[in-house]
């Protein structure tokens, strides 16, 4: 794993752009309405841009020259585990750069939706954001397949994607065409499931159900394939939407569902495992390339390691969150997942997704070889 991570960093760094960088005090983000989306780009819900074996992990910068300050955006609440591990890498980078790189943390979608913030990043705003691979439709639309339902089926497959030539090419395309650097795509937030006010035991039980989804073509195509009526809202509006019956269901990892207190307003959770929810940290490519190489390595390593730790936490805590939700009165349903996957498969031939021809099969080859 450590060797593969180092190889990935080497490959990813090859295509660094040479644009002039923006330092602290540069372009400020435009005013945005506060709003959230869950992690991994459908959010909420990012693997190996960092190099765990880099010397920068062992030393702290002694001489501070140019300084950089970033706003850091996540749409999750401060109670979400993502906030903890985001704070981890921010603290590490500030310490190891001797205070030359500092951060202002903005959880709860304070800077706007994921799509809004990613647009600001593409314009060079001094922001680092947590996003899903489906947030870059203008410059690297094929990345969105990584946030498409039943494309990946296990967190173990994240490494294979990271090491693939396909992913490296997509990362380069995003850097060159979208001025966006992927720092690390290894923040596994958990498997996504459906939380509802009525029991969902088979795909047919979803016919006509009003379900909240993120503003993602794949998420919308998925629930339509299952017979649902999609309702697009920001994540921070889900609680009130379910409370007032605007929607009667939503979907997210257990950690996100629980940290958003949705067990208070919906009592059934169907373990559909429909998405390996994995997100990434991104920043402007021009600012990244303007930073000293030592700072870049420190940042890459810290974000990567936070993703590793966060993923371990997510994998180990799913049972804990299930227990907490059960204690709060939620009934868990373990359905025939294959039946949901089979019905959802029509999303890839519906014409609603604009992936390159043969992309789904290419991803399947990467994760099975």
Secondary structure topology:
Elements: H1 2-14, E1 68-73, H2 81-96, E2 101-106, H3 114-122, E3 127-131, H4 158-163, H5 165-178, E4 180-196, E5 210-213, H6 217-225, E6 229-232, H7 238-243, E7 249-253, H8 254-259, E8 268-284, H9 285-290, H10 293-327, E9 331-333, H11 337-344, H12 359-368
How does this model look, in words?
The chain has 369 residues and is of the alpha/beta class. It is 37% helix and 18% strand. The chain is built from twelve helices and nine strands. It has helices at residues 2-14, 81-96, 114-122, 158-163, 165-178, 217-225, 238-243, 254-259, 285-290, 293-327, 337-344, 359-368; strands at 68-73, 101-106, 127-131, 180-196, 210-213, 229-232, 249-253, 268-284, 331-333. Strands 1, 2, 3, 4, 7, 8 and 9 form a seven-stranded mixed β-sheet that branches. A two-stranded parallel sheet has the order 5-6. Helix 2 runs antiparallel to helix 10 (293-327). It is globular, with a radius of gyration of 20 Å. Residues 1-37 and 41-59 have low confidence and may be disordered.
């Amino acid at each position: 794993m450590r060797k593969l991570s180092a190889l990935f960093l080497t490959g990813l760094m090859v295509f660094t752009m040479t644009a002039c960088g923006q330092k602290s005090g540069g372009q400020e983000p435009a005013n945005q309405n506060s709003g959230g989306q869950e992690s991994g780009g459908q959010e909420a819900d990012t693997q190996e841009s960092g190099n765990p074996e880099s010397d920068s992990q062992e030393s702290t910068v002694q001489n501070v020259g140019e300084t950089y300050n970033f706003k850091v955006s996540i749409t999750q609440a401060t109670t979400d585990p993502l906030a903890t591990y985001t704070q981890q890498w921010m603290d590490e980078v500030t310490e190891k750069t001797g205070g030359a790189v500092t951060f202002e943390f903005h959880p709860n979608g304070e800077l706007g939706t994921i799509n809004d913030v990613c647009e600001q990043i593409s314009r060079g705003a001094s922001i680092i954001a947590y996003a899903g691979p489906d947030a870059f439709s203008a410059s690297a639309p094929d990345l969105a397949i990584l946030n498409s339902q039943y494309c990946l089926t296990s967190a173990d497959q994240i490494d294979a994607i990271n090491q693939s030539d396909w992913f490296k090419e997509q990362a380069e395309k995003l850097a060159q065409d979208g001025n966006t650097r992927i720092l690390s795509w290894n923040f596994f937030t958990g498997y996504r499931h459906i939380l509802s006010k009525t029991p969902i035991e088979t795909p047919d039980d979803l016919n006509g159900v009003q379900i909240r989804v993120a503003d993602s073509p794949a998420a919308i195509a998925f629930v339509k394939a299952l017979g649902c009526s999609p309702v697009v809202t920001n994540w921070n509006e889900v609680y009130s939407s379910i409370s007032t019956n605007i929607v009667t269901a939503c979907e997210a990892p257990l950690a996100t569902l629980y940290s958003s207190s949705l067990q208070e307003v919906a009592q059934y959770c169907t373990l559909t495992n429909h998405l390996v929810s994995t997100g990434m940290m991104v920043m402007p490519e021009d600012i990244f390339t303007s930073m000293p190489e030592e700072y870049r390595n420190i940042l890459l390593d810290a974000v990567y390691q936070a993703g590793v730790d966060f993923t371990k936490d997510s994998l180990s805590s799913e049972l804990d969150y299930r227990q907490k939700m059960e204690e709060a009165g939620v009934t868990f349903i373990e359905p025939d997942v294959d039946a949901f996957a089979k019905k959802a498969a029509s999303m890839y031939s519906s014409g609603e997704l604009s992936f390159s021809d043969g992309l789904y099969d290419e991803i399947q080859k990467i994760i099975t070889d």
